C-alpha cells in the first residue's frame, strides 16, 4: 500500500488502533480518541476515500494487501441479506443456559448479532472473529478453541483444536459449508477446516446446518458434513423446491426462511423439544 500524508494526527491514531484490533465500531473509536461519533465518521469518510479502511456491517477494519480479514469481509458481504435472515432464525433456536458450538464461517458469525442480551449462555467456537464479536455480550461466556490459526478462515484448526473440542459438550452446533447436495451432505474446498466441523458434530446433541440457496447444486471437493449427522437444515425460500422436497422426504427438520421478513415461512418435520 502506498503511504499517504494524513490530514491530521487523529487519522494516524485511527489507523494505529485498527492495526492492533481486528475490527472496531465507530463508538469504540469515539471512546478511545475522546471525540464525537460525528467526527469519527468524518475521519472514516476520508480514510475510506484513500483506501486505508473499509466499513462493513457497522464495523471498521484496516485494509492491507492480501489481508485475511479483508477476505473474510468480502465473503461476509456476499449474499449478506440471506445470511442475516438465516442467522436471525438460527439465534431464535437458542435457549437460556444453552451451550452452543459455532463453526467458523460468515453466516455463523452473524448469529452473535442476534443473540438476546439477557441470555446467559456458553459459546464454543474455533472462529477468532466470532469470539471477538461475542466478547461484547456480557452474559455470554466464550470458550475459544485453541490450535493452529488458518488466517484466511480466521479460525483454529489441526489436532490441537479437535482434541480440545472433544473434551466439551454442547446442546446445539451451528455449522456452514461451501456447498450442499442431497443425499450426501455438506462439502468444503479447504480440507484443514473439516476436522473441527466433525469435532463439533461429535460433541453436540443437535447439528444445525445453515446453508443459503446459492450453495445448493454447487460442487466442492471434500465431504465435510455427512447428511446422516445433520438434524436441522436452515435455508431460504430461494432454494429450488425439488431440493426442499428431498430434504423433507429424508425426515430432517427443515426451516425455510423468508429473507425479506427474516422470519420462518415454513417449518417441516418439526420435532417435539423442551
Molecular structure report:
With 274 residues, the chain is α/β, with parallel strands linked by helices. Helix content is 35%, strand content 26%. It is built from eleven helices and 16 strands. The protein is globular and about 60 Å long. The termini are far apart. The model has no long low-confidence stretch (mean pLDDT 89).
Quick structural summary:
It contains eleven helices and 16 strands.
Task: Based on the model shown, name its key terms.
globular, 11 helices, alpha/beta, 3-stranded antiparallel beta sheet, 16 strands, 274 residues, 26% strand, 35% helix
Structural class: alpha/beta
Strand order of the largest sheet: 6-5-4-9-12-14-15-16
Biggest sheet: strands, sense, closure? 8 strands, mixed
- Number of strand elements: 16
Count of helical stretches: 11
| Shape summary | globular
Instruction: State the end-to-end distance.
Output: 54 Å
Low-confidence stretches: none
Summed over residues and divided by their number, the pLDDT gives a mean of 89
What share of residues is helical? 25-40%
Topology:
Elements: H1 9-20, E1 24-25, H2 26-33, H3 37-49, E2 53-56, E3 59-62, H4 68-77, H5 80-91, E4 99-102, H6 106-109, H7 111-114, E5 121-125, H8 128-134, E6 140-144, E7 148-150, E8 155-157, H9 158-165, E9 170-175, E10 179-181, E11 185-188, H10 194-203, E12 204-210, E13 222-226, E14 232-236, H11 241-249, E15 253-258, E16 263-268
Parallel strand pairs: 4-5, 4-9, 5-6, 9-12, 12-14, 14-15
Antiparallel strand pairs: 1-3, 2-3, 7-8, 10-11, 11-13, 15-16
Amino acid at each position: 500500500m502506498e503511504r499517504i500524508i494524513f490530514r491530521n494526527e487523529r487519522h494516524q491514531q485511527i489507523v494505529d488502533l485498527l492495526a492492533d484490533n481486528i475490527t472496531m465500531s465507530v463508538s469504540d473509536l469515539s471512546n478511545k480518541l475522546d471525540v464525537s461519533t460525528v467526527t469519527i465518521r468524518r475521519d472514516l469518510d476520508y480514510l475510506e476515500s484513500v483506501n486505508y479502511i473499509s466499513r462493513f456491517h457497522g464495523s471498521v477494519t484496516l485494509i492491507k494487501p492480501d489481508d485475511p480479514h479483508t477476505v473474510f469481509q468480502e465473503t461476509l458481504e456476499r449474499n449478506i441479506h440471506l445470511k442475516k435472515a438465516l442467522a436471525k432464525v438460527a439465534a431464535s433456536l437458542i435457549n437460556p443456559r444453552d451451550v452452543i458450538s459455532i463453526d467458523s464461517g460468515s453466516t455463523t458469525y452473524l448469529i452473535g448479532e442476534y443473540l438476546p442480551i439477557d441470555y446467559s449462555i456458553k459459546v464454543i467456537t474455533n472462529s477468532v472473529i466470532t469470539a471477538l464479536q461475542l466478547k461484547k455480550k456480557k452474559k455470554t461466556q466464550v470458550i475459544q478453541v485453541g490450535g493452529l490459526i488458518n488466517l484466511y478462515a480466521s479460525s483454529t484448526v489441526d489436532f490441537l483444536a479437535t482434541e480440545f473440542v472433544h473434551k466439551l459438550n454442547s446442546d446445539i452446533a451451528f455449522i456452514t459449508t461451501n456447498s450442499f447436495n442431497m443425499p450426501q451432505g455438506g462439502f468444503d474446498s479447504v480440507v484443514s477446516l473439516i476436522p473441527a466441523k466433525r469435532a463439533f458434530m461429535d460433541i453436540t446433541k443437535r447439528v444445525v446446518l445453515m446453508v443459503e440457496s446459492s450453495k445448493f447444486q454447487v460442487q466442492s471437493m471434500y465431504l465435510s458434513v455427512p447428511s446422516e449427522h445433520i438434524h436441522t437444515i436452515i435455508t431460504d425460500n430461494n432454494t429450488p423446491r425439488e431440493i426442499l422436497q428431498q430434504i423433507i422426504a429424508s425426515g430432517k427438520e427443515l426451516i425455510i426462511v423468508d429473507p425479506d421478513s427474516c422470519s420462518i415461512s415454513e417449518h417441516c418435520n418439526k420435532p417435539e423439544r423442551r
